[in-house]
Design a protein that fits this description.
Elements (H helix, E strand, L loop, with lengths): L11 H35 L6 H26 L3 H37 L5 H31 L1 H10 L11 H18 L8 E3 L2 E3 L1 H23 L3 H24 L2 H7 L4 H9 L1 H25 L6 H7 L1
Antiparallel strand pairs: 1-2
Helix pairs in contact: 1-2, 2-3, 3-4, 3-6, 6-7, 7-8, 8-11
């Protein structure tokens, strides 16, 4: 460590504290896995059904990866590794963007969820109170929480603390944070594609449903394209940027066309959803048939607007430099 006076406020205590918080968050995510397995086993023993094992695999993998990511970032923050700061910011910016849509999603389907869980509630005061509690809780988890981390880790003193204790340039320093964010979102997209194996490889395809071998072939092709995109987007290729915009537009049109021609229950039946899941979806039919396609279009449009906002980070010069 340097002997010269530090020209900033040392925030290593803050980094350690929030690092521990993330470690606990990771441990909590990992603890959800045995709880899910116990729930599945209890349903099988009591004969009450529950989700089939195959349907739980994507959730188990998600919480496993999420737990590992949080623990790794928590340790990195506590050890004052500058790569940790970049990835923490990327993760929480994605979390915040997802959280805004999740909160809006919850606000739209709230009444359906309450009806499924406890039946119709006639008292408007009680209904309003429950609505406020649910929206407030969702907002705290998905909006306030990531905002706190973003404010902390964007602080100039926090940034200087990382750079002081970890002076060497890391791979995260060579790329702008928005570029890293897009790459990580595409990694998530690639992993999501692989989860199609649990759902009979069902793929909405311009008004029809592909499944089985046909769905697997299309999914494999999309996965190959995703791997190419991740590599080229990291290299800040403008061509890859345009391909991504085209894929989002094409995928959105394909999805909406399929939902317009097929009842939502038919789609989820192809995906091997359990009878309990189908019953729950059926009780929310108005949302899935009418509102969900609109929701998907809004999310896709916002992602495209974000891509245009960061378009300056991608150029032919960057492709030549990496070529």
């Amino acid at each position: 460590m340097k002997d010269t006076p530090e020209p900033f406020k040392d925030r290593r205590g803050t980094l350690a504290f929030f690092g521990v918080v993330m470690i606990f968050m990771g441990a909590g995510s990992l603890l959800l896995i045995p709880l899910m397995l116990l729930s599945m086993a209890a349903g099988m023993l009591t004969g009450e059904g529950g989700q089939p094992a195959a349907a739980m695999v994507p959730s188990i993998l998600f919480y496993f990866v999420l737990g590992g990511v949080f623990i790794g970032l928590g340790v990195g923050s506590a050890m004052k590794k500058r790569w940790a700061r970049a990835l923490i910011l990327v993760l929480h910016w994605i979390w915040l963007a997802t959280g805004v849509f999740s909160t809006l999603f919850m606000a739209v389907i709230f009444r359906d969820i309450i009806r499924i869980m406890v039946g119709e509630i006639q008292d408007p005061v009680l209904m309003g109170l429950m609505y406020a509690i649910v929206i407030l809780t969702t907002g705290l988890i998905f909006i306030v929480h990531p905002l706190i981390f973003i404010v902390i880790y964007r602080n100039p003193n926090v940034k200087a603390t990382f750079e002081y204790y970890d002076p060497d340039e890391r791979w995260t320093d060579r790329k702008p944070l928005p570029v890293l964010a897009v790459c990580f979102m595409q990694v998530y997209g690639a992993v999501s594609l692989m989860s199609g194996a649990m759902y009979h490889w069902t793929v909405p395809f311009f008004g029809t449903l592909l499944y089985g071998l046909a769905g697997a072939l299309v999914t494999t092709l999309l996965l190959i394209v995703q791997v190419f995109l991740i590599r080229e987007l990291y290299r800040q290729s403008l061509r890859a940027w345009w391909v991504l915009v085209g894929l989002i537009l094409t995928g959105s049109v394909s999805f909406v066309m399929t939902f317009m021609k097929h009842d939502f229950l038919e789609i989820y039946r192809f995906m091997n959803y359990s009878e309990e899941q189908m019953a729950m979806l059926h009780s929310m039919g108005s949302f899935w048939n009418r509102d969900f396609p609109v929701y998907i279009l809004i999310v896709s449009l916002c992602y495209i607007l974000f891509l245009f906002y960061i378009k300056n980070y991608f150029s032919e010069k960057q492709e030549t430099a990496h070529g």
